[in-house]
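S1.2 Input.
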Amino acid sequence: MKKILLALAIASATAATAQSQSSSWDVSIGGGVTIPTSKAAEYCETGANVIANATYSITPMLALGGEINYAYLHDKTTTGANIGHTNFVAFLVKGMCTFTQKGIRPYVALNAGWYKAHDDPGELGYAPEVGLRYRSISLGTSYHVATSQGFEYLEISARYTFSL
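S1.3 Output.
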């Protein structure tokens, strides 16, 4: 798996160098609410997330890129005592399609990559995403699935995008 991630990083760097004359790169940062579902809802409460991603526009309506996603969830307690938290970190490859070029731009995306929780060695997972973008602001929701460990969660987030 590490070899695949290294190959993706080298391919991204090569594409960036080859396309450096174009300004089709977008970098987004943001955050929002993370809601555990499925098995994760049994032991976690609603938390927060932080997201950073970079995409390259292949066409005005199609982009490819990568995303780093960090989710923080409070562990559930039956006694009222603070028993800790659960972290999820995801390193994802992203494909995104927008449906319009001006004004409010609805989009769909598919993220896939490596998910890691606490001391877990990690696993492959995916996250379909839908949202709206207006100028530099995006509002979206994604459903993250990494099934062998049973952690699934819904994210609702806002992002600010910088065009490079």
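S1.4 Remarks. Residues 14-22 have pLDDT under 50 and may be disordered.
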